[in-house]
Amino acid sequence: MKNLILFTFFSLSFFVAKAQTAETNQQDTTVYNHVDIQPEYPSGLKELTEYVKKNLKPGEDKGLVFTIFTVECDGSLTHIHIVKPLSETANKEAVRLISTFPKFKPGIKNGKVVRCYFTMPIRFPQDV
After folding, report:
1. What value, to the nearest 5°, has the Cα angle with vertex 15 and ends 11 and 21?
2. Are the beta carbons of 39 and 106 closer than 8 angstroms?
3. Helix %, strand %, coil % for the chain, to 5?
4. How far apart are CA 96 and CA 89, in angstroms?
5. Which of 60, 50, 62, 43 is nearest to 97 (CA)?
6. d(CA 61, CA 39)
7. ω before 125 within 30° of 0 (cis)?
8. What is the pLDDT of residues 90-103, one digit of tens each?
9. pLDDT value at position 26?
10. Domain TonB C-terminal spans what residues (predicted)?
């Protein structure tokens, strides 16, 4: 009888632990368009502008490249795409530049850190 009770206890403990692990491993993989708090460059918009001016390699193009990317829960930037192209050279430079950004402060929705989209125009040249 004692062995049956111990067996039952350990069996139930295993299943409870397994269920808790499965529950915590399920992450929200949704990428949100709208969040309560937008993601942001670690030191703010002014520093982002300075970073772009310092690191953008100028070309012959004049105009805007509109980009969109995903800010992950850890602040990393993934899935960088061109929404409105300017030229092949400018488009590649915009993607290269964004891929060098440090991690952002992630977006927040309903009090939780979430994945979300971030749209950003890149101006060529950066003298304005």
Report:
1. 145
2. yes
3. 35, 30, 35
4. 11
5. 50
6. 29
7. yes
8. 999 999 999 999 99
9. 63
10. 62-124
State the sign of the Cα–Cα–Cα–Cα dihedral 88, 68, 59, 87.
positive
Give the right CATH number for 28-124 from 3.90.660, 3.30.1150, 2.60.40, 3.40.1620.
3.30.1150
* Token code pair at residue 36: 């309560």
Direct distance between the N- and C-terminal alpha carbons of the chain, in angstroms, rounded to an integer: 82
Please give the structure tokens belonging to residue 31: 């990428």
Angular region, 111: left φ>0, alpha ψ -120 to 50, beta rest: left
105, 48 Cβ separation under 8 angstroms: no
Kindly report, residue by residue over 24-72, the tens digit of the pLDDT: 446 789 999 999 999 999 999 999 999 999 999 988 999 999 999 999 9
Tell me if 28 sits within 8 A of 107, measured CB to CB. Answer: no
Q: Is 31 helix (H, G, I), strand (E, B) or coil?
A: strand
Using a cut of 0.70, tell me whether the model's pTM lies above it.
yes
Q: Which two tokens stand for residue 23?
A: 């529950």
Q: How far apart are CA 121 and CA 51, in angstroms?
A: 14
